[in-house]
Amino acid sequence: MGTPFTSLLTSFPLQNLTTLDLNPTPPTHDGYGKEFWIGITVSVFTNLIQAFAMAFQRKSHILNDAFPPELRKPSWQRPMWATGFATYLTANIIGSVFSIGYLPIVILAPIGAMGMVFNAIAARIVLNDPFTKRSVLGTLLIVIGALLVGLFGVIPEPDHDIDDLIRLYKRPAFIAYFSVLETFIVTSILLSHVAQSLYQRLERDNFQRKLFNGWIEPGDFKMCIGISFGVIAGNISSQSMLFAKSGIELIILTVVFKLNQLQYALTWIILAMMIITAILQLYYLNKGLQLCDTVVMIPLSFCAFNVSCLFNGLVYYDQWNRLFWWQLVLVMVGVTITVAGVLILSWRAGTWRRLTHGQEETVIPTEPTHYAAVTDGNDQPLERQTYGTITPSSSTDNASHASKQSAHEKSLLLPKP
Q1: What is the total count of domains within the chain?
Q2: Residue 397 backbone phi and psi in degrees, to 5
Q3: Owning domain of residue 338
Q4: What pTM value is reported for the model?
Q5: Angle ∠(285,345,203) on CA atoms, nearest 5
Q6: Using one digit for the tens of pLDDT, what is the confidence trace for 258-269?
């Protein structure tokens, strides 16, 4: 998918750093020259890699859930997850670096929409998600919604020095908005962690107790928690972008224009917050992948990021006079269409576990469960059980399964003969 880091770095074209103009104009792209096609190729390819990397991270989480809670391994101890995460991070950085100065901001929206398509393809290939007519409709709505959000949710902003940033940070409107936003995010984080703890307790009890008097199925509750973490990641990422945009502006002024901004405490606070929020965004994105399918979580996280970036810019940079009413309407329509597509996909994902194979006409034939053909270390089949977990069908000792988990994941990364 289109990433926040790519959107951030492409807003700092290198061509602008050759003069002493502190408010440089973006480069023009009158033709489709070599640089444009390099930027397009690298961005599309790295988006494709990131989609598959996230799918493998999700697959590692699902395989890890095959074991009892006490035998499950942390993410970083699992080769598949570690490889997927490293690949995702590397592709993200490379794509961002090569996109600087090569692409106009308006191109990022179609690339972000393509990321949603890659996300669906990766889910089909890696996770063996059922690909039905309903899946096609949901993915199409997500792409259309992502295009609207990406195209009309971007407002260019000139560079600022430390005095401008201090003035912007001290504005009462920003202080009030930021306080409400941070309260919402912190509350959402706390509630999401409490909900995850509740789910884990029910899981240890083999779901013998009903959840909220049977009002919601455990599998759906787990998915909602994952969505919550994904939306949190999107919101935190938008704040990371705000801090990073300010921090990189100050670094550019210091390094390129020889106007030292590092002598101010606020500069270091901004840089520290940029790093902290970037780490938190990756952390909660991974927690979302642990609990929710990529086809459901990633589009909602994408929307949360773009909408949050839009309102952060409107309030922080006081851009209200540069936003037309129809832009905001189209962004909200895009969000609505994306959510509708996600609801279609989540309905499919939730009901697929309850339907017998063949009740919904498929575009690409698939098995009724994600990992019906996956085997454990003793070549015993792994069967999909209630609420989306995978449990070894044999009664082999649990410690034996845990000891072979890493080797099993490594084998899944290798091409089949």
Answers
A1: 1
A2: -55, 135
A3: 4-413
A4: 0.74
A5: 60
A6: 888 888 888 899
